[in-house]
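Lab notebook, bench 4. Still working through the backlog of constructs that have no structural model yet. Next entry is a single chain of 301 residues. Request: give me the structure tokens for it.
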Amino acid sequence: MAPGSTVARCGSISEAAKIFHITAATGSRWLKELEEHLNVTLLISSTRKSEPTEAGILLYERFHLAYLNIQDIYKEVEAANSTDSGVISIASTPLFSRNFLSKIIGEYLFICPEVSFRIEETAYVDEKKNDIDFYIRAGATYRGYMEPDSQLIKKTLFSYPLVVCCSPSYIESYGELKSPEELKFHNCIYTSTLVGGNRWQFDVDGDVTTIEIAKTVEIENSEFLKDVALAGGGIAYLPLPLVKKELEAGKLVSILDDYIKSKFEISLWFRSPKHMSSRCLKFKDFLIKRTLEIKDTIHFS
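Model written out:
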């Protein structure tokens, strides 16, 4: 409608076409379509000149103000998208939020105090939630693993080896496992989003084998699983850095080492950068940079 009302103001299709960077033929076609839609003549043309009708003048006067308001709204939206102030929403797996994200956000707020954060601890990526800017997910990868279909972009932040472990007292009571198949008869504690939930993958004779474990304890918190294992409650499949201190102290022991090829992976998920605000783009770059810098220095609780 904007080109059509501008034709009425200019009294010339070619002049209006120049303003909107279109051809005169396109401008003429748009004017004709607008007149047909409104069922009224907006411009009277003769061999010597073109003049707007009374309806054409009214259309321009009324619509031009609305058009200017729309342009102001566009400018405000663009300015809001380019500012560094505002809220950044993050849904993060608990392990990353407590050991990495709290430190990274603290550092970022020191240099960018105009930004605020909303953090949700969750192990799941729910793409239907449009109010989340970033998802940070923990998962296990192994040979033949297929990533689920997603409209989001994935950036792997880091990966760690995985270990199957339990307390020495558990082995004393139930015996040491010789093969992954024996897990079916033991207390196993797990998260549904890590290492396939209650379906753990192992490398047996060069092939990836999935073992369906007993569902003893399920929770989306790796640190909780570690505490259950330390208390002798069962067998856990956990990232090495989380249990390294306990393994070295003899409070936990690793088992089935020859069968483990899976890795624990932390990944960042986000929408296309072309749909991302300036504040989110800057924080994304900072998050990736700092995660890579501190991943080998973090002391897991």
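Notes after review: The chain has a mean pLDDT of 81. The chain has two domains: 2-82, 86-294. Flag for follow-up if needed.
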